[in-house]
Design goal:
The protein is α/β, with parallel strands linked by helices. The chain has eleven helices and 14 strands. A hairpin with a 3-residue loop joins strand 10 and strand 11. The longest helix is centred in the last third of the chain and has 25 residues.
Length: 342
């Protein structure tokens, strides 16, 4: 297979020289791809998780699976060729998408902002162009994997919350990503909030957390308070410039999110909650609102060692996609299958 090679820095201990082996991190590569609502990124990584090359572009997920996946496989081929790597050295492709996914099949499940993707067989379509194992998951699960890999490798219990147009979370408990029975674990954006129960959500229900605390709801609140803004960038700019209307709305959104997160804290007892997504860039105002409620509502034992922090890195999703692919590639069962195929 060429995955194992001799250690170059093995120290002699006398007697017969020992043969010490190590993983050859550059023997194979994995593909890491993230699709957002309006952007896409494709990367190659070695087996240590190091991103070797990457391309980022504007790409509408609403263009549909055929257009998006054709772009993805074409870019991965170009990246491989640019590094002089044969396509058969691409072991696994990890893909993150902005919607719920049935992880075992790689098929999106009723994704609200992904028209045409529902139940689409992503692995089958990718394999028409590239012969590699294809794994698909939702973007927030990729973010929590990436955040832990880069910044909290020793933390066994962690929640990553993405606050943007939508709201979602990724959960690591006991060192393992928790997907639940059908891949929907962490979908807190559609938990019913204590306020705004008459506000319609794009999922068809009323009072969902993201319907009252997602970016569109905050923007609407700021406009109603008399400060005209158009989009999330305007909102973040207004909060950073200490506009009272923006600060109040963002802080309240943090409190609303904190109400749901405090229940998660009682259920899961995480060590760290990481806040990411575009809304986390609005200074400390969102996180301050979250902390206010989480520390006030959670039981003392569950919160006394809890830390709530802002995400440190914007590369979390693409790194998480690589980590998902590498974990599969280096799994004992996968290696056994590769050996049997020789």
């Amino acid at each position: 297979l060429g995955v194992i090679g001799p250690m170059t820095d093995a120290t002699s201990t006398g007697g017969r020289p020992s043969a010490r082996l190590q993983l050859k991190e550059d023997a194979f590569v994995v593909g890491a791809v993230s699709f957002g609502a309006t952007h896409a990124q494709a990367s190659l990584a070695d087996l240590s998780g190091k991103i070797l090359v990457s391309i980022d572009t504007k790409r509408q997920i609403s263009d549909g699976p055929e257009v998006c996946l054709r772009w993805m496989t074409s870019e991965l081929k170009h990246l491989l060729a640019g590094l002089g790597i044969q396509e058969d050295r691409l072991l696994v492709i990890g893909i993150g998408v902005p919607g719920p996914v049935e992880h075992t099949t790689g098929r999106p499940a009723n994704p609200p902002i992904m028209p045409g993707w529902d139940a689409f067989d992503i692995p089958e379509r990718v394999n028409r162009d590239l012969q590699a194992k294809v794994l698909v998951d939702n973007e927030v699960n990729m973010m929590v994997l990436g955040e832990r890999f880069m910044n909290f490798p020793d933390v066994e219990n962690l929640i990553f919350l993405k606050a943007a147009t939508g709201i979602g979370s990724g959960i690591i408990a006991g060192g393992i990503l928790q997907r639940g029975a059908d891949g929907t674990a962490g979908d807190i954006g559609h938990v019913r909030s204590l306020v705004g129960t008459d506000v319609a959500c794009q999922c068809g229900n009323f009072g969902c957390l993201e319907a009252i605390a997602g970016a569109p709801a905050i923007i609407r609140s700021v406009n109603e308070a008399g400060l005209p803004i158009r989009n999330t960038a305007d909102l973040i700019d207004a909060a950073r410039r200490s506009k009272v209307e923006a600060i109040r709305a963002v802080r309240q959104a943090g409190r609303d999110i904190g109400e749901v997160l405090s229940t998660c804290v009682s259920l899961l007892n995480p060590e760290i909650i990481v806040i990411g997504g575009s809304l986390s860039s609005a200074g400390e105002h969102l996180i301050a609102g979250i902390r206010e409620i989480v520390y006030g509502r959670s039981t003392p034992l569950a919160s006394e060692n809890l830390t709530v922090v802002q995400s440190r890195d914007s590369k979390g999703e693409i790194v998480g996609a690589a980590v998902m692919a590498i974990d599969y590639a280096l799994d004992e069962a996968t290696i056994d299958q590769m050996l049997e195929a020789i």
